[in-house]
Amino acid sequence: MIPNNSMLSVDVEKRLGEFTIAVKFEAAGGATALFGPSGAGKSSLVGMIGGLLAPDRGRIALDDTVLFDSAARVNVPAHRRRIGTVFQEGRLFPHMTVARNLDYGRWMSGLPADPAGCERIVELLDIGALLTRRPGRLSGGERQRVAIGRALLMKPRLLLLDEPLASLDRARKLEILPYLARLRDEAKVPMIYVSHQAGEIQRLCSQVVRIEDGRVAASGGLELLDEAQV
Amino acid sequence: MFNLTPEEWTAVELSLRIAIVATLVSLPFGIAIAWLLARKDFWGKALLDGVVHLPLVLPPVVTGYLLLIAFGRKGALGSFLADIGIVFSFRWTGAALACGVMAFPLLVRAIRLSFESIDRRLEDAASTLGATGAWTFLTVTLPLALPGVIAGTVLAFAKALGEFGATITFVSNIPGETQTLSAAIYTLTQVPGGDAAAGRLVIIAIVIALAALIASEWFARRAGMRYHGD
After folding, report:
1. Domain range for residue B47?
2. What domain count does chain B have?
3. Cβ–Cβ below 8 Å for A52 and B127
4. pLDDT per residue over A120-154, tens digit each?
5. Is residue B1 part of a domain?
6. Structural domains in chain A?
7. H helix runs in A66-139, sequence order
């Protein structure tokens, strides 16, 4: 929202076989899109920000916390980064009910129980009726809403959404997009939204970083979506 | 038919005690080694894998003899352990050790397979939610591997219950101390008029084995149901 108030800064290099990712960008508060075709390296980038994949070289910082710095040999492990991640396939724990999935991040992060906050997010995402079910009995759209709730309830410093709608059909996408918009406006968690769909980004994000072939092709506002031929 | 003599009851009770102790004591080691083999790359991994599987392919007499050399009163480990009050040779504890070693490959194989079949992306999801490696293992990996752990445990129990060659080589065939069901049956078939008693014990062996299989099937199905559906 405030461009000068930079919160996430990324400058990383990673070699994956023949493919090299070398990306440098900064994302201010609000919702920032990482936009680009499949295979551009977006998911690897998500892994590096979340702490699941170590860059070969570079630096990642969130506000004034350094998460990774190859020069200073800093690599904060994923479980201490407090970056809520929503994956394309949801990745809900199949052996836990929805309620326990939702509570997992709070429990593991050692946060005190917060029934009011929990209720607010359950209401925001409209998942109150699902709490006693197991993920195997949820529709694709319901699963993603629970996954978003689970990431939010750990009170993350940043919400990382990696193609959260890509596995859904058009109708389900339209079902979830309004929730994401409400989230951005009401939950006030900064968001990185990874997608190859210009339409989703248009609805949610104010800034765009366009990734192509493992590099930043351009960064700026929503006008980048029109120029892109995806 | 089922009027077992006290000696026969002793053999049944001893067999159950030996098989249960062997299985329960080897279970944590089995889980640890299965996890190492499934998840870690380290120097000597092929060797560890080989050593674990050795009892499966060696003649049981050889395994028993090796145990005798290592854990006998004059054995390298045996004399050390005897000093701190742990004696294996010609004791039921030695029979449990032999049965545990013989059953270990079956235990490790089943658990390793179930670890390998777990979607590791769920473990990644757990770490982004704040779970350390140990918590991820306890709350995600192990519960999801439970059907395999149960199957391996029952298989190991059945193997321990019927083990003969290594046990008789290592701790001999002492009624009331190391004479298990198998050893008692063997002894009875070697004496004139022992057929009826041998037949009784054979039926008991079949009943125990069948009960174990049915129980494991039931546990595994229940565990499986929890993950797929409600």
Report:
1. 6-228
2. 1
3. yes
4. 889 888 899 999 999 998 998 899 999 999 999 99
5. no
6. 7-227 (3.40.50.300)
7. 98-108, 115-125
